[in-house]
Amino acid sequence: MKHILAITGLVALSACADQGEVYRSYSEAGSLTDNGSFGDANMNNHLAMTSEDNFVINLSNRFAEEVPNTINFAFDSAALDAEAQATLRQQAHWIRQFPEVRFRVYGHTDAVGSEAYNQSLGLRRAQAAVAYLTSQGISRSRLEAVASFGETQPLVVTQGRERRNRRTVTEVSGFVKSNPIIMDGKYAEVVYREYIASAVPASTLIMVTEGSETTTE
């Protein structure tokens, strides 16, 4: 009888497997509550110590998410208008919070004009952005380089004038030390500093009840 029940159970299990579903009466400890994120913190620490993760890309993505990384220019101009200056001030504020990080500014143009002229114009735009960032207290040594793509990387493919193509883009390029591998704890220092800064002191509420004040934390 026992053998018959065992065979019946195996047949039922095989039938479920054929349908792509297997139901078990047992599982690993914690499997019901694990949504796939358990161990991420330890994995991140491991990646940081072994330099298997590209933290430059991670920081660059964060920079682009938290701050506008692009400014635009008038036609055939490298002058910064009020909107561009406001954006660069936002960039400078973010950059000051990460003294370990270096940045690069890329200049772009639209397709009007010769390739050589646009290469030069893109460089002048990048230099203008870098000059303004340094005026906001960012060390020139942290602005690793300026580069020009000229007309070769348009956002909008057109041979005519296009403001969105006339731009500079600021990106994270590496860490201040020549070796970008974060074996000395620099990245951990950034994370710890931001963790401490995220602490918000308890607010003080004043409750007024018919001529008396009650202070609560």
Automatic annotation (TrEMBL):
The name under which this protein is listed is: OmpA family protein
* GO terms for cellular component: cell outer membrane
Question: Can you tell which superkingdom this protein's organism belongs to?
Answer: Bacteria
OmpA-like domain: from which residue to which, for each copy? Answer: 60-176
Localisation = Cell outer membrane
**What is the species listed in this Swiss-Prot or TrEMBL entry?**
Roseovarius azorensis
Which InterPro entries does the record cross-reference, listed alphabetically?
A: Bact_OuterMem_StrucFunc, OMP_bac, OmpA-like, OmpA-like_sf
Q: Which UniProt keywords apply?
A: Cell outer membrane, Membrane
Against CDD domains, the record matches this protein to: OmpA_C-like
